[in-house]
Amino acid sequence: MSESRTIADLALEVRSKNASPFWVTMELFMRDTAGYTIVADPGYLNASVIARLYGVDADTVQIFRIPALDVVKISFPRPVSQGSLRDRDIHAGQHHVPLSLFPLPNE
Description:
Blueprint: H1 7-10, E1 11-20, E2 23-30, H2 33-40, H3 47-54, E3 62-66, E4 71-77, H4 96-100
Antiparallel strand pairs: 1-2, 2-4, 3-4
C-alpha cells in the first residue's frame, strides 16, 4: 500500500511567515501549472480546509491565487499575537507543516 501524495510532493516550496504580529501568511510555490491547477482549485483548498487545519475562523481566511506565478498565498489571523506568552512559533516558521502534509485529492 503506497502512501498518499501531499501538497509538498507538487511544490517547489511551502513556507510560512509573519505577516504582522497578528497575521500569518503561507505561500505555496508550485513546480508547474499542473500542480498549481490542483492546489488552486477552490473545491480542494479553501477557507474551510485552512480553518480546520489551523483552528481559525473560516471567515477570516484570505486566499490569493496567482496563476501567472503558479503560487497560492494564504493569510489568516494568528491564534495568539507574536511574542505573547502562549506563542509557540514567534516567526511563524513552522505553520506551513500541516498544509505541506495535506493529502492531494484522489488522482
